[in-house]
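Consider the tokenized backbone below.
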């Protein structure tokens, strides 16, 4: 298992300190993302208002079929899930054997379908 470059206490200190520059937060988020810690990096990107970093996580989540990361990135971006993304995510989750994530994506697709009907 990969080891985080930032201990949770250090990450928390960066996020909680009011004078931490957005560039520092984004750089730390990129480092964590390249080390395989997308959920942790999402929190740093959110605090930095780094929408590009959050969109990278969103694309990664769709490509991997990771409903948790997809929901987190959408929440931090302040946007609603998109049918095309959810459809692709459900398919990728199925292929990866992530049946819980597939089911959650399909459930949300059903809710979106009901809203548009």
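A designed sequence for it:
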């Amino acid at each position: 298992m990969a080891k985080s470059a930032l201990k949770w206490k250090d990450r928390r200190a960066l996020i909680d300190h009011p004078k931490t520059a957005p560039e520092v937060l984004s750089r730390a988020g990129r480092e964590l993302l390249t080390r395989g810690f997308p959920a942790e990096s999402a929190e740093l990107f959110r605090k930095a208002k780094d929408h590009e970093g959050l969109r990278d996580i969103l694309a990664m989540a769709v490509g991997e079929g990771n409903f948790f990361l997809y929901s987190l990135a959408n929440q931090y971006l302040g946007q609603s899930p998109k049918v095309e993304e959810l459809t692709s995510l459900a398919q990728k989750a199925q292929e990866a054997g992530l049946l819980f994530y597939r089911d959650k994506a399909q459930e949300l697709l059903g809710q979106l379908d009901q809203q548009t009907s």
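The chain has seven helices and no strands.
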